[in-house]
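Review form for a predicted model. The reviewer records the input and the model, then writes brief findings.
Reviewer: anonymous (R2)
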Amino acid sequence: MPQLSAVPLEREKGILFMRMHISIILFLALIFQSGISHQLKSQSTLIEKDSIELVRLTLQYALSERHIPDYKLIKDTINYILLPINIQPSWIPQLLGHKIILMSTDSIQAKADREGDFLFLEFKYFQTQNDESVKVCLDNDWCFSRLPTSGSHSNLSGGGIILTFFRDGQSWKRSELMQIWIR
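Model under review:
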């Protein structure tokens, strides 16, 4: 009777084990890839019309309704300075009684050097949760004068808000839950 060797059987088990691990890895990679493509698809569904409306609603809540942290410390409550990061200039709305002035980082610093420290606004991000909700983060931050006569600077004010909006048919509605912080 021929003697069977255990080596080929062990090699077959090893190959089978390796194939099983490769299959699991490929399966997980496929799931991961589909999750990323869904996330990218979800982020790309925020069209310009939606962005314009979300910027308008956020600025209305923050400025017209005075809910941005430290609103009372904003020197000029008619002319607001906005650093146009993460937004397009065409998204800026006309708000009754308010003017939004877009300024670059250098222009904001030059204004602070000329006129003194002041608060300015910046949209930090728009984060789509799914096709039906978006989080918008608006920051109210200080720009300090670089002039030596301006005194000491403490950043114990300013802050921001994160608002969540839900799609309601063709429009957006703000959730009552939000995040607010003060520096």
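Findings: The helical segments are 6-44, 48-64, 105-115.
Further findings: The first strand starts at residue 79 and ends at 83.
Recommendation: see findings above.
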